[in-house]
Automatic annotation (TrEMBL):
It comes from the Bacteria. It comes from Parashewanella spongiae. This is Lipoprotein.
């Protein structure tokens, strides 16, 4: 009986320790790099950025970064694709029973038509040349003049990526602290 209770406590501890990594992200990364790149549809690819706090983002500061390595060459390559704003939703703060919900700004971005063509061509070339490793990332420039902020507030960001309309968003970053100078 004591072994069973101890096993349950250890199992529960392991499960809750991994809870900060969303299951969708674990599922995406369980596929091979080639499968992940094949799923990416340039027209349907979306990046969703959620800021908790009163930060407002300019639309020209977000880039999709595609880094990869080919089997033959062994060298890493890095491509950056500017993203364009599709939508912006603002949610006012709400007073909860115990913890208030902070103000949120939710931005959705996509590749513009020119970058969709470049992304598609790049994807085809990479798949043809023998992909070894691929990584997607979303870069945000929070330099001066690109954001509006309030001095007395802290900010958190979550970044999600959707490769095509048949898939759900998967999380790249969840509730990370943001430092704006």
């Amino acid at each position: 009986m004591l072994k069973r209770v101890f096993s349950l406590i250890i199992g529960f501890s392991l499960l809750t320790g991994c809870a900060s990594v969303p299951l969708t992200t674990l599922f995406i990364f369980s596929h091979t790099d080639r499968e992940v790149l094949e799923q990416a549809n340039a027209e349907q690819l979306r990046a969703k950025i959620t800021y908790k706090g009163g930060i407002k983002l300019e639309s020209d500061v977000v880039l999709l970064t595609l880094s990869y390595r080919l089997k033959e060459h062994g060298s890493n390559a890095l491509l950056k694709f500017p993203l364009q704003l599709v939508s912006h939703k603002h949610k006012d703060p709400k007073q909860g029973w115990i913890i208030p919900t902070p103000e949120k700004n939710i931005y959705t971005f996509k590749l513009n038509s020119e970058n969709q063509k470049v992304f598609l061509k790049t994807k085809q070339d990479i798949l043809k040349d023998g992909l070894e490793v691929v990584n997607f990332n979303v870069d945000i420039n929070l330099g001066k003049g690109h954001v509006s902020k309030r001095d007395d507030e802290s900010y958190r960001v979550s970044i999600d990526l959707k490769l095509n309309q048949n898939e759900e968003y998967f999380t790249l970053v969840r509730n990370a602290d943001v430092i704006v100078e």
